[in-house]
């Protein structure tokens, strides 16, 4: 019996036009999806780059506006180079017409600072230790901060710094002594402790758990260096930043120094009150036209004596302190320039310290 092969029908190798059109449509859709996704990715990348370029451009413009504000402040203080004294009545200390909303290029800049208005506080609330009294106000002023209103940590002796730390930080005598001694040992040239306990030298900093280092054994170049010193934390720095400086010859301007600084150089509470009362004038308001000014170093005691009675001991103390610590002029100034571009949210801040000759001693941009 013969077996016949069964022959299966062959499939056609040709597709119908409908199948071809369907395949082309699917391929087209996938291509469009791929290209769309690629376009979105590329678009996002380009957009991010454009935003980055715009931010960099705005940052450069803000920097230029802030720097121009600092230069304008320098030019203004140089105009007063022949002045023999400096006080809060000076245009550079507070004048919104000169230092507020200065139009420069594509932006504006304020040269401003916050100042505790001690004239507005009630002296009846002062504590025996001489801390700032309750009820005082911090006001925004448009102008420059003179560095001579502060205590120079490179020249002040331990006793002056101890008194300041007790007043401003509200700490006990031991804590104040330890911190003052640590600063003295940080800046002096030797590696010996100035006090047997509480201070710190190379051996202490070498044994720190993280980022060990040694004492500088040289003057501080910036106030930020205080954070490296034993016992100085962020909270203490925030409280002390308006009372300490690394600029100047160490003499303090009696016309601008706050009460805490005057107390730190050894003045009694009553003597400080009389000096502040003289400075504030009859209206008792700081920075007004009736403020009194010590115009010469040699006139400090006579001028105060004509305004208010001084006991023999107060006159003797003021004469001694004036000879050692005080002057009536300021040579170094801090400008805080807050700049913004017109119709833009972005802003920047530059802090600079310069002298009357226009030499920039410190520059920091936030």
Keywords:
Ribonucleotide Reductase Protein R1, domain 1; alpha+beta; 366 residues; two-stranded parallel ribbon; elongated; 40% helix
Q: Can you give a write-up of this model?
A:
By secondary structure, the chain is α+β, with helices and mostly antiparallel strands. Helix content is 40%, strand content 15%. It folds into two domains: 16-150 and 242-366, no CATH class; 159-240, Orthogonal Bundle (Ribonucleotide Reductase Protein R1, domain 1), CATH 1.10.40. Strands 1, 2, 3, 4, 9, 10 and 11 form a seven-stranded antiparallel β-sheet that branches. Helix 3 packs across helix 4 (173-187).
Output the helix-strand order: HHEEEEEHHHHEEHHHHEEEE
Percent of residues in helices: 25-40%
Mean pLDDT level: 87
**How much of the sequence is in beta strands?**
15-25%
- Sheet/helix structural class: alpha+beta
Question: Helices and strands in order, then pairings?
Answer:
Blueprint (H helix, E strand, L loop, with lengths): L16 H62 L17 H4 L2 E3 L2 E11 L19 E6 L2 E2 L4 E2 L5 H12 L3 H15 L14 H5 L27 H7 L3 E2 L6 E2 L5 H6 L4 H12 L19 H8 L4 H14 E2 L4 E10 L5 E9 L4 E6 L1
Parallel strand pairs: 5-6, 7-8
Antiparallel strand pairs: 1-2, 2-3, 2-9, 4-9, 9-10, 10-11
């Amino acid at each position: 019996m013969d077996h016949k092969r069964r022959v299966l029908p062959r499939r056609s190798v040709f597709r119908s036009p409908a199948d071809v059109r369907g395949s082309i449509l699917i391929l087209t859709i996938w291509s469009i999806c791929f290209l769309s996704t690629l376009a979105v990715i590329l678009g996002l990348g380009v957009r991010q780059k454009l935003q980055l370029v715009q931010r960099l451009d705005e940052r450069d413009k803000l920097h230029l506006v802030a720097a121009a504000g600092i230069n304008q402040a320098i030019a203004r203080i140089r105009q007063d180079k022949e002045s023999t004294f400096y006080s809060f009545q000076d245009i550079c200390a507070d004048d919104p017409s000169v230092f507020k909303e200065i139009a420069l290029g594509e932006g504006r800049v304020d040269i401003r600072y916050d100042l505790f208005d001690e004239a507005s506080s009630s002296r009846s609330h002062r504590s025996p230790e001489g801390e700032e009294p309750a009820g005082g106000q911090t006001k925004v002023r448009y102008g420059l901060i003179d560095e001579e209103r502060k205590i120079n940590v490179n020249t002040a002796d331990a006793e002056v710094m101890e008194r300041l730390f007790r007043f401003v930080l509200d700490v006990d005598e031991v804590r104040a002594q330890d911190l003052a001694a640590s600063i003295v040992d940080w800046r002096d040239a030797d590696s010996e402790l100035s006090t047997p306990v509480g201070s710190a030298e190379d051996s202490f900093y070498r044994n720190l758990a993280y980022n060990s280092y040694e004492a500088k054994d040289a003057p501080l170049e910036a106030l930020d260096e205080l954070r490296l010193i034993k016992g100085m934390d962020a909270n203490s720095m925030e409280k002390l930043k308006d009372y300490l400086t690394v600029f100047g010859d160490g003499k303090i301007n009696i016309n601008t120094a706050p009460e805490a600084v005057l107390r730190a150089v050894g003045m009694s509470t009553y003597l400080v009150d009389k000096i502040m009362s003289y400075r504030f004038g009859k209206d008792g308001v700081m920075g007004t036209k009736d403020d009194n000014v010590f115009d010469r170093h040699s006139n400090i005691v006579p001028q105060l004596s004509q305004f208010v009675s001084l006991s023999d001991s107060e006159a003797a103390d003021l004469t001694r302190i004036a000879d050692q610590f005080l002057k009536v002029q300021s040579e170094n100034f801090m400008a805080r320039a807050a700049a913004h571009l017109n119709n833009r949210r972005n802003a920047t801040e530059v802090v600079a310290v310069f002298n009357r000759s226009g030499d920039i001693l410190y520059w920091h941009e936030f």
